[in-house]
Amino acid sequence: MEVVIKRGVPLPRHITMVLPEEMRDELKVPLGPVLLEEDLADRLGDAGPLCTVGDMTTETVHRLGAPIHLSVVDYQTKREPDIRWVEALATVGEATLEVTNAAATITWEMYNAILEAWSSPAALKMVVDGEEDLASLPAILHAPEGATVIYGIPDTGLCLVQVDRHARDVVTDVLRRLPCRSERAPS
């Protein structure tokens, strides 16, 4: 199935991108420097519009006082429900969006919500029913030039991606290689 992957272009309704097993190791390579919390604080001053992906990442950046334009969370830790995040992230964002996205996928719903969120004047918290594990990819693709996307790497640190042409090119290449399937119910 041929799908156009380009900055600013929405994913067609009912399309889901799927991470194949053979690409999983490739996506374990960080897209930017990996920092510890104490190193992150120094880098947030000139971060540009900011997107966080992951509950712990969002809580850390929020606690450090940086204004988050878009946070993508799923109220889970290592794929297990973790109710503490509901309270810890309650004050993040001016509005909340809810989307559905299964593990190792990018649904049209999450992809397009991230695209639209970047142009929103309000700070948004996106709560994912399922998994937000691949949300950093469309977040980087659709981010404005100079934005920063921060995502967590479990048991390692926080990956900080300064969005520029190179970062977008890398992400575009990955997204174009993800197989797509249609979730449309047969008529």
Keywords:
alpha/beta, about 30% helix, about 190 residues, 7 helices, single chain, 7-stranded mixed sheet, globular
Task: Outline the secondary-structure elements.
Layout: E1 15-18, H1 24-27, E2 34-35, H2 37-43, E3 50-53, H3 55-63, E4 70-73, E5 76-77, E6 80-81, H4 84-88, E7 95-101, E8 105-107, H5 108-118, E9 124-130, H6 136-142, E10 148-153, E11 157-162, H7 165-177, E12 180-182
Parallel strand pairs: 3-4, 3-10, 4-9, 7-9
Antiparallel strand pairs: 1-8, 1-12, 2-11, 5-6, 10-11
Helix pairs in contact: 6-7
Characterise this structure.
With 187 residues, this protein is of the alpha/beta class. The protein is built from 7 helices and 12 strands. The strands form 3 sheets. It has a 7-stranded mixed sheet with strand order 2-11-10-3-4-9-7, sandwiched between helices. Strand 10 (148-153) and strand 11 (157-162) form a beta hairpin. It starts with 14 loop residues before the first strand and ends in a 5-residue tail after the last strand. 39% of the residues are buried.
Strands, total number: 12
- So how many helices? 7
* Major sheet description: 7 strands, mixed
Which structural class best describes the helix and strand composition? alpha/beta
Roughly how many Å is the radius of gyration? Answer: 15 Å
**What number of structural domains do the residues give?**
1
Percent helix:
25-40%
Structure summary:
This protein is of the alpha/beta class and 187 residues long.
